[in-house]
């Protein structure tokens, strides 16, 4: 018999803790091998059920197969979500993200990558079932099936890697299965020779008249195609001093096009892309005359033959014909921007000045233009020599 005044004590639990809540239900928790306190994913109606959950967790620890309950629950949930469905969820979420939503053009590219590079290989697999080995096999399959589109393959890997990073943030995956940074590395494109001044002059001359000033402005101000085709009369500022005229263009918007040739007008690619660029005087004079032909401040500087906004696919066709006529069928409209950037570097633009002119927030690309300009030193010296020889002949 117990001594008078003594109380019967309940035996202390050897593992975990149970607590009955005001609702009458039972909560179970325990300290795991990681030193953290882990709760059961739900409460239990009966105490015996809560004890059963603790017993199961203890057995996992004894068998050395334990992982945190939250991770197991997330993995189970991830197994019910396919890779293709989660990719679409992420893309859709990014298009609605504020204050920096994914651009329609970028969303279209991502969906195309999912459709052609991800879904045919791993789209049907549960997200939680994707392992590093799964990813490695997918990368190898892409390389085999699409050997000539290495850039697009690496773009698909970078997209899927970012999707998996979102899954980790959403606690659907404990860690990302994308472990091969090399697979997402952008392949170095074959370097095309820069346009020479003579080639540039011939190319512009070969363009239809309505596109020549646009090409001169792209080169003179190092503009992107989506920037120059959205410039309007109100974006040009003209300053006159006697017979001299100066002009600047402000890049405040850009146009991008998605499948179906739908135009999307929005801010430039980055905050640095919002910029005001001084127009070279020889182009400014032509631009000022052109402004006189425009009806209103909101009028586009350049339009197609029907007066509508110039579509990139249409301009590329026109440009390709002119480039071929100039003896450079290998160049694209973007080469005009490259040409203008190198010309700016050749006349002494500093790294900061190049970044501002190009609308770049980092110096990487501007450095390339500086190095390219330095590499043309021999060409410049040769031209100087020929110029001197020409004068000697006079």
UniProtKB/TrEMBL annotation:
Keyword Ribosomal protein: no
Keyword line: DNA recombination, DNA-binding
Family annotation (InterPro entries): DNA_brk_join_enz, Integrase-like_cat_sf, Integrase_catalytic, Integrase_recombinase_N, Phage_L5_Integrase_N, Tyrosine_recombinase_XerCD
PROSITE patterns referenced in this protein's UniProt entry, alphabetically: TYR_RECOMBINASE
SUPFAM superfamilies xrefs: DNA breaking-rejoining enzymes
Domain Tyr recombinase: 190-382
GO BP terms: DNA integration; DNA recombination
Taxonomic superkingdom: Bacteria
One MF annotation (Gene Ontology) recorded for this entry: DNA binding
PANTHER family the record matches: PHAGE INTEGRASE-RELATED, PROPHAGE INTEGRASE INTD-RELATED
Family, as annotated: Belongs to the 'phage' integrase family.
Protein name per UniProt: Site-specific integrase
Protein source organism: Dietzia natronolimnaea
